[in-house]
Amino acid sequence: MIHGLLRSDSVMGEKNKFRGIRRNLTNYGDPGFAAYLRRSFAQSMGYSKDMLDRPIVGIATSPSGFNNCHRSMPELVDAVKRGVLKAGGLPVDFPTISLGEVFLSPTSMMFRNLMSVDVEEMIRAQPIDACVLIGGCDKTVPAQLMGAASADVPSIQLVTGPMLAMPYRGERLGACTDCRRFWARYRACEVGDEAIDQIEANLATTAGSCAVMGTASTMACIAEALGMGLAGSAAIPAVHADRLRLAEACGERAMAMALSGAPLPSQIITPASVRNALRVLLAVSGSTNAVVHLTAIAGRRRIEVPLEMLNRLSDETPVLVNLKPTGAHYMQDLFAAGGLHAVLYELRELLELDCMTVTGETLGEHLAQAPAYVDRSVVRPLSDPYQPHGGLVALFGSLAPRGAILKRAAADPDLFEREGRAVVFESLEDLSTRIDSETLDVTANDFLLLQNAGPASPTGMPEAGYLPIPRKLAQAGVKDMVRISDARMSGTAFGTVILHVCPDAASGGNLALVRNGDRIALSVSERRLDLLVPESELNKRRSAWTPPQVPARGYARLYREHVMQATEGCDFDFLRGQ
Ligand code: FES
Fold first, then answer.
1. 3-state secondary structure 112-136
2. Ligand 1 centroid distance, CA of 547 (Å)
3. Model confidence over 411-422: pLDDT tens digits?
4. How do 56-61 and 90-95 pair as beta strands?
C-alpha cells in the first residue's frame, strides 16, 4: 500500500500524501530528471530501492563539540531511527547549527533566530514527510519549535533531558543553581579558591541539560504542555534508559504522522495550547526566558501572548512544583515524583483539554488516567500548592511602559513594595568595571540598574540581569537587592531581579534616560514600576539621547535591523507568521 502510493505519480501532488524521496524536488526544470538524479545519488549512500520507496522521517540533530548538553545525541538519533524503521519508514538525520549556552559570545540568544531559520528551511527544503527535532540546551528547543511552527510539517520535539545532580560532600550539586549559589559565596569570601575549583569540577557531571527548572527544563515542559512532545517526555533524565525508549517511540510516532500528514504544528500550537503552556510555566515556577521563547513560538502562528494575560493566568495558577531555583529538588526528582504528567493532572481543571497533541489525541485524553504515583514532597495538589499564585508577574509603569518581568517566586517579598535610589550602570563593561569598586556609592536599599543589555543592544540581550551584589555589600552579608535591566536572567538564577524592561534602552526606552540618584518606585502588588522623574526632565534627556551604532555587516546587522522587543519574543519581524 505504502509502496503503491510512492510509485504512483498521480498522488504526488496531493496535499498530505507522503512523497518520500520525491518530495521537494530540486528544480532543474524537469521533475522526472530531478527524481531520477536524486534516487541515483541516494543509492550512492547504499540505500536499497526498497528503502527509498518509504516515507522519510527527518531527524533534525544539533550535536556539537561546543554543546555539552547535547552529548547524548548520537544514541538518541540511533533510537529514533530504530523507531522509524520499526514502523516502516526511512529515517534520515541531518545537522543544524547547535547553540551551547556557555560557549557562545556575546550570548546564545543572539543566535536563536538564526537556528530557527536553519531548522525551518531545512525541514521545508529537504524531502521530509515528518520530523523529529532533537534539542536540549536553552535556545535549541525554542529555535526548533519556532522553525517547525513556520515550516508546518508534522514534527515531534524530543529533548535530550536533564543532567543528574550528583552527591558531593553530604549534599547534591547540579547545574546551575548551585553554580550561582557557590559563586555568590565565593564573592562573599565564604568559599576559598581550592573549594571553588573542586565545586567547578562537580557541578555538571553527566550528559544532558541543566538539572534544575532552568530555561532548558522549562522549555521541555512547555514542549510537552503545548502538545509538541510525547506525554511524559519532559523530565526523563538524559542518561536514563527511558529516554532512549522515548526516542524510539518518537521515531515510531513520527512515521505515523508522515503517513497521515497530521497533526501539523499549526493544529497543535493554538491560542488554547499556548495558554496551557503558560499555565504550566507558572505552575512549575519556570524560567523568565520561557515567556520570551513561548511568545516567539506563538508569534510564528500569529498568536499574541500579551503580558496582561500572563498576569491574569499567574493570579489563577498556583505553583505546584518544588524544584530549584525556587524550591529544593532537581529534575530527576520530578521524574521520580510522577513527571510533568503529575503536574498536568493536578492542573487539569485549569487547562483547555481539547487541545490536539502529536499523538493525535487531545490533552484531555492523555489526562484521563491519574498518575500511578505522585511524590507530594515534589508535586503538590492543586488544593494545597506551594504558592497560591504563579511564579512570574509582569510589571508596567513609566520605567517599563510595555512591561517587564519579575520571577516573584525566586525573589525576596520584603523588597516588593518600596522606593529606591537608582545606581546606574550604562553597559555591561561599566558594570564589570565598577560593581566591586570600594568607591561605588551604593547601599543595600538602592536599586541597581543596568542599561543597554536588551534585544536591540549590541550584546543581544544576554543573561546579565542577575547583577552581582556589590562585593562590599556581599561581604557585609547582603544577599538580595532590587535589580532592574532590559537583559534576561538565567532560569537557574534567583533574586529580586526585574528583567526584559520594554522598550529597551538601546531602542530609546525610558530605561535609557535613568540617571544615578533618580528615584524608582516598585510595587509588585500593584504591578507597577515607575521612574519618579518629571516628564519635562525626561524629554530633555530624551532629546540628548543617541542610539547605538548599527553593525556594518553580516548577521549582527541583520539581527540589529530586524530584532523585535522582548514582548514580541525577540523574533525577527520578517519571521513572524503572516
Ligand atoms: Fe545547556 Fe544549561 S547549559 S541547558
1. HHHHHHHHHHHHHHCCCCEEEEEEC
2. 33
3. 999 999 999 999
4. parallel
Query: Which DSSP category does 162 fall into?
Result: B
Same domain, yes or no: 73 and 129: yes
- pLDDT for 3 equals 35
pLDDT score, position 48: 95
If asked whether residues 270 and 176 sit together in one domain, one would say no
CATH code: domain of residue 558: 3.50.30.80
Cβ atoms of 386 and 380 within 8 Å: the answer is yes
103 CB less than 6 Å from ligand 1? Answer: no
Ligand 1 center to residue 554 CA distance, Å? 27
Atom of ligand 1 nearest to the CA of 209: 4
Domain encompassing residue 11: 1-52
pLDDT value at residue 16: 39
Residue 297 grid coordinates:
513560538
CA of 176 to the centre of ligand 1 (A): 8
Predicted confidence at residue 13, as pLDDT, reads 40
- Ligand 1 pocket: which of 70, 209, 212, 488 to mutate (most atoms <8 Å of CB)? 209
CB 99 within 8 A of CB 67: yes
575 occurs within a structural domain:
no
Give the pLDDT confidence score for residue 2 in this predicted structure: 34
- pTM beyond 0.90: the answer is yes
Give me the pLDDT at residue 6, please. Answer: 35
E strand or H helix at 295: helix 289-300
Residues of the chain scoring pLDDT < 70: 1-18
Q: Which amino acid is at 46?
A: G
Domain shared by 524 and 448, yes or no: yes
pLDDT value, residue 494:
85
Is the same domain home to 257 and 357? yes
